[in-house]
Each structure stands twice: as C-alpha cells, then as structure tokens.
Design goal:
The protein has 176 residues and is an alpha+beta fold. The protein has helices spanning 2-8, 40-43, 89-94, 153-170, and strands at residues 13-18, 32-33, 36-37, 52-60, 63-70, 73-83, 103-105, 112-116, 119-126, 133-141. Helices cover 20% and strands 36% of the residues.
Length: 176
C-alpha cells in the first residue's frame, strides 16, 4: 500500500490556475485536488475570493500532503496518512473540540469523521490490506491574513464527501 502511495505521488504536481484581464476579482478554482478531479461547488466555498488559486501535492513515505494556495498563502491542506491501527477511542472523544462547531458526521462511504467549520478528521478502514490499513485524512482550513473564515460545517462536509471517496479510489483502498 505504501509503495502505491509513493508511486502515485512520486512527483509534486502543481496546477496553477489564474484569471487575467478581468476588472472584477473572480476566483479561478483548481479543477483537481490531490491529482483527482474535484467539483467546483465542493472546493470554491472553502477558498477566499482572490484571483489566483494553486493546488500542490507532495509525498513522503506513507504520507501524502495536498494543499491549495491563494495568492501564495496556504488556505487548505489535507495530510493523508496510512496507519496499521485505527485512531484511539479517546481521539474521537476529543476531536470535536479541535474544530469550530466540530461534530461526528456520517459520510457517503463507510468511515468515521468529525467535521467542523474549519476542518475535518476522517478515518477509512481499507479492508484490502493485510494487516488492515487505515487511511486518515486531516483536513484544515487556514485563514488568510486579514480575512476570517466564513465556511460552515456543511461546506466542509460537502468537500469531504467529494474528496475522500476520490482519494480512496485513487489510492486503491477498499473501504468497508
């Protein structure tokens, strides 16, 4: 599994999308996040309204880091890791306090999640590993200097429901 992650993400991918020649600011939303298509409606509400958005990815061992920058400032990250053990029960008890309005939420695929207005933690059990492997997604929204986050838990959950299943498929995890 780790070799597939490293092979799938061996090189950093940078997608630069910009809008030029417009008098009003319109955000150019990346069409991909973590080398997978992402719905504009899932990503756009999480980004500040600036002119340039850029998606990047890097890999190290069993970890994959994906991020979006707006005007050179990181505003969204997802640190994806593979572990042989699930998160301890006490982590799920304390996780809601780590996010603004954090709550346990259901997903469109089997798994566990805590989602808040400013991020989420998601765990997916990959049934096809021996021993079993767990994918952990640590999604964070970061404030751009001079701006405050105006996202809601629903915005973050919409992103999670679009992004997580795509990554489960990309990284060959048989969720269950």
């Amino acid at each position: 599994m780790f070799k597939r992650v490293a092979a799938a993400a061996a090189a950093a991918v940078i997608l630069l999308v910009s809008v030029t020649g417009c008098s009003t600011q319109t955000l150019a939303v990346p069409e991909e996040f973590c080398e997978r298509p992402i719905e504009k409606d899932a990503l756009e509400p999480l980004l500040p309204q600036e002119e340039v958005a850029e998606a990047e990815q890097s890999a190290s061992g069993s970890r994959l880091l994906c991020q979006v920058k707006v005007d050179e400032t990181v505003v969204l990250t997802d640190d994806i890791g593979f572990e042989t053990n699930p998160l301890p029960a006490e982590s799920w008890v304390s996780a809601p306090r780590q996010y603004k309005n954090g709550q346990r939420r259901g997903l469109v695929i089997p798994g566990a999640a805590v989602v808040g207005d400013d991020g989420a933690v998601v765990e997916i059990n990959c049934k096809n590993g021996s021993p079993a492997m767990y994918m952990h997604f640590n999604i964070k929204l970061l404030e751009k200097e001079g701006q405050t986050l105006s996202t809601s838990q629903g915005d973050v959950l919409n992103f999670v429901d679009d992004h997580v299943p795509a990554m489960v498929e990309r990284l060959h995890c048989a969720a269950g």
